[in-house]
Amino acid sequence: MGTRAALRFSLCVGFLIATHVATSARAAITCASCQARVHLTRDKLLREKRMEPGDKGSPLAEPLSPDAGLGAPTGEEGTANGSEELGVSGDAVQRSEDAGARGVSQVLRDRSFQATRVAGITGDGDAHDGNHLGRNWTQKSTFARPKRSGGEVSEAVEGARSSEPFIDGAHGQDRETAAPSASGQRQMMRTESTWSGADAKVFTPRQEEPKVVSSTFALAGDSAHNQAMVHWSGHNSSVILILTKLYDFNLGSVTESSLWRSTDYGTTYEKVNDKVGLKTVLSYLYVCPTNKRKIMVLSDPDRESSVLISSDEGASYQKFRLTFYIVSLLFHPTQEDWVLAYSHDQKLYSSMDFGRKWQLVHEHVTPNRFYWSVIGLDKELDLVHMEAHTVDGRAQYVTCRIQACSESSRNFPFPGYIDTSSLVVQDDYVFIQVTAAGRASYYVSYQREPFMRIKLPKYSLPKDMHIISTDENQVFAAVQEWNQNDTYNLYTSDTRGIYFTLALENVKTTRGLEGNMMIDLYEVAGIKGMFIANRKLDSQVKTYITYNKGRDWRLLQAPALDLAGNEIHCVLPFCSLHLHLQMSENPYTSGSISSKSSAPGIIVATGNIGSELSYNNVGMYISSDAGNNWRQIFEEEYSIWFLDKGGALLAVKQATVPIRHLWISFDEGKQWSRHSFSLVPLFVDGVLVEPGAESQIMTFFGHFSHHSEWQLIKIDYKSIFTRRCTEGDYQTWHLHNQGEPCVMGEKQIYMKRRPGNHCMLEKDYSRILSAEPCICRASDFECDYGYERRSDGKCLPAFWFNPASVSRSCSYGRNYLNSTGYRKVVSNNCTKGVKEIYTAKKQQCQVRAPKGLQLLTSEGKMTATLGTNVTFLVHLEEGDSMRTNIQLDFGDGTAVSYSNLTWTKDGIKHVYKSAGIFRVTALAENSLGFDSTSLYLHITCAVEHVHLLAPFVAIKNKEVNLTAVVWPSNPRTVTYFWWLSNSTEPIITLEASISYTFTVEGMNIVTVQVSSGNNILQDTKAIAVQEFFKSLLLSFSPNLDEYNPNIPEWRQDVGRIIKKALLQVSDFPEEQLLVAVFPGVPTAAELFILPNKNQSEGRKKSEEDLEHVRTVLISALNQNLVEFELKPGIRVIVYITQLTLAPLVDSSPRHSSSAMLMLLSVVFLGLAVFLIYKFKRKIPWINIYAEVNHEKEQEMIGSVSQSESTPKITLSEFSTPKELKEKELDARVKGKPILLSDRIRTIPHLYLYK
């Protein structure tokens, strides 16, 4: 006894020290049997005890018997509903316990703890990714003892106490005896205690019950690893693989990893890092779902990208290098060696030999939107469905075979583009979404037929849609309508998934941690047509149940008695039972509601009783008759699993402290027996139950503390079964809905194990004994599409629906189904009765004139790019499609005609060869009449270049023309935005030129933007605005033309050099000289001489100064004094061009008649020179446009400095000298064109100086 006391004291002190030095860490277990990496993290667990050095890597075998002492599971971590309820005082709840447990108890009594549960699933609902294993926990500041209905004592404390339950009204007492076994392991023998929820008493059996055996194994050396992936190889296999890794959240990568393998169902594990490479860091573990002997392990891509392959359940591996980084894998549903791999750069690869060789299937694939072929629907097994993006980022639905997915071999089942991340391939259905004009439309393909638009009620105007289920040849969809924010409406479809009717309004939704939407709708396993949903009504959330796929819903009746046997006063509809419907898609956690197809009628869920769903005062409830009656089984939250195909129930408390007990029930939750699964309390991260269903083995995963190694506890519960079940161990159970035996049109009788029998179910256990069809009644029929159920229960047409329109689109001589307003619930098996009354009647189609003709493009857009295929869709609301002629005029001079509408079902394709706006007209005509419709289609061509033509110098308060030259030219499809001077708003035109008057002297900036389709280009020019100026035309020695590339940049640089050369022969200020080099050859330029803007003298003095400068420059030019060096050895001389078209531009009327005659003669001389010279060499820059109708033409504009434009010059007819005087000031800015030819010609600028 002295040795035991010393041992207890030492352990207690050790645990106290460990508690005070505990720090935070994060750990995770992921589901490796799923096809992706998923994590469950455990944050900052309290360190209670570390493994002894001698314990590392060695299993601890522990035959465990049920504990005797604790009563109700609600107080399993302390006293059963308070020991006082069992007639035992708190002082009497004392007994001897092992030293380790007592030490933990003392620590937990001295410290307070508090924890918060962190949520659920990683990813975005990806079909290719797995789910979290276990639950996440995040330590806040301290852990607090959880509140309980009775005593407030944790399970660790419970080890130092015992209650003495009543045995037939008397007190009974028993103790556990612990003695070391021959192997040094501790044996604990206890008599089993059971708890009955009916009378809240514990009954001790007269003879000892079978025991469960457990063993614990610590993954030595992995205490720092914070993530793990677990895989049980499957039925008839004893192999378990575990990949642990250290994920650095700062680096975002895995820095360490260990791979463990067990061949004895988890009793012992061997580290197999040497088989994959001691320096290889592993990131993920995948298992082939059709052959679980085949394993695929990925290395961390930050170190190397490779895959390790095993075909013997992980006993040996082959390593293969990869040229890409795998993000996710998708295995073929039947071919074990076929795998799809999605890479980090959005490429899809395939392998036909289980990852040894890979080939590219397609690029630019949307994440999580690729699917293997569906067996029985797709003809080719190697067909892949995927959503891929074009170069411009638009998504398409693409199918191809993985061995032949070249561009020519790809198919596009949907004609047009779809919304990104909208493709869903599920069972018989393919769904896509298309958004046009801000409104989403949904399309479905049933059994690979052509896509049809999904018909929702006309004014549902959906904002979002989720496909919930496609079981039993029907689609369940959750639709968020235009006026909903946090709720969705539930809709059910016909067999083809086209016509949807409302099943339930305002279903509650929640948003997961990853942003994924979760609908509070649960489909009960094993019972056809049975759903449970949480509906929000008047700000209250209530739980409803349906037995006929949403045709009728009702509230859940609360239990009549609570756990203690007290009567519950809960009257419908003011009070009812409400359930939490969060399912766990992770096989290692149970979720808040559970059912199993092998245990029909049994539903276990977390919930509360009251007027609405609440997260306070929750408990565990069970129904054994498919939701008709409910019983409370726990007063706190438990995770529930089904053992032995549902014949037994396993419960584990969702505690915020470590636990070491589990509860098992053989009578559908009426009585529970408690068993210990660990000597030391364990933070449970997950429970692996299902893979061992055939072997009666389950595994608990967790940690003793946040610094301890991963603890794997194997539990063999085979011994709790006394024998295999025989015929006498079964009983029949009739499915019903509140006493009504007909559910989904038939009477169903199930075979179930009698509650309380500890026998093991046979493998070939049959669940449904018989199913007899019922006579059809009104409750077997729901409202058809377009009809709504009124208060009297009848289905009448909605205000927007015209029942006659259904018959108007069929062909003469054929039949159509005339709806009665009802349709039988899908999968309902009733016969006769009112079936004939409610079933749609077959009637003959009548000939009708075409009406309601609709024309649209497949993309729903009114624009298309030049040269691309445009697909037009024609739809006729009324009329005989087989006897109605369809004509389509594309508006570009071509048209097509079809003898009937059926020829146009795949769309009418056309390619436009020119840009513009085209009026497309459709005409439907038959012997009784016609109908027509039109749309205006914009065919655009991307603008590649824009050039702004503007005068380099303009006269103040005089109108000038600004012109944008666009290439290629797109008439009527280009929009021009003109930003003038310092304006904050543009002038928007459809024409390429505008007239504008500058009112402020100085440099004015003009910018034009050209918009065509999604393309916008712009050009900018600077215009010098003055009251008057002078100019000279310049020419150059011929050698300059040899180096003229005729590009704007070259002209700008040469203009700057010319200006510098001119300044060297005059002292004129630099800012008053502007040089513009014209495009083309021979190279020519224009020199502008501007007045000094700071000059205070009058205009006459300024003009004299300009004349002086002009004289000086002319003299220098005539003497060949102006020259520049273009490159070493190449000198260019600047000359003055003697002929000119206009005098000094100003506003004075002083001109002589002789000057006018001279000007007129020069004009004719220039035209003669042009006609002679045009056949030899083109001289730029003046463009003369001719037009018959004297409409306003584009004017001639020069280019200077950084611009390519020159001042505008008008060649006008001078009738009289007086008219010429009046127009003289406008000579450069405005006038009429001379009609010379129907082609554009170019002549040089000529100026006359006075």
Question: What labels would you give this structure?
Answer:
single chain, 6-stranded antiparallel sheet, 9% helix, 9 helices, mainly beta, 1250 residues, 7-stranded mixed sheet
Give the topology.
Layout: H1 2-20, E1 26-31, E2 41-43, E3 60-64, H2 99-110, E4 115-118, E5 132-133, E6 136-139, H3 155-158, E7 166-167, E8 170-171, E9 177-180, E10 186-189, E11 194-196, E12 201-203, E13 212-218, E14 227-232, E15 240-248, E16 253-262, E17 270-271, H4 273-276, E18 282-287, E19 295-299, E20 306-310, E21 318-321, E22 326-331, E23 339-343, E24 348-351, E25 359-362, E26 365-372, E27 383-389, E28 395-401, E29 424-426, E30 429-436, E31 439-446, E32 452-453, E33 464-469, E34 476-480, E35 487-493, E36 500-511, E37 517-519, E38 521-523, E39 531-537, E40 540-546, E41 554-555, E42 576-579, E43 593-596, E44 599-610, E45 619-623, E46 631-634, E47 638-643, E48 648-653, E49 661-665, E50 671-676, E51 683-688, E52 697-703, E53 711-716, E54 723-724, E55 730-734, E56 742-743, E57 746-753, E58 759-760, E59 768-773, E60 781-783, E61 787-789, E62 795-797, E63 815-818, E64 822-824, H5 835-838, E65 841-844, E66 851-857, E67 863-865, E68 869-878, E69 885-889, E70 895-898, E71 908-911, E72 916-926, E73 929-940, E74 945-949, E75 953-955, ...
Parallel strand pairs: 1-14, 54-58, 67-73, 75-81
Antiparallel strand pairs: 1-2, 1-5, 3-13, 4-6, 7-8, 9-10, 11-12, 11-50, 13-53, 14-15, 15-16, 16-17, 18-19, 19-20, 20-21, 22-23, 23-24, 24-25, 26-27, 27-28, 29-30, 30-31, 31-32, 33-34, 34-35, 35-36, 36-37, 38-39, 39-40, 40-41, 42-44, 43-44, 44-45, 45-46, 47-48, 48-49, 49-50, 51-52, 52-53, 55-57, ...
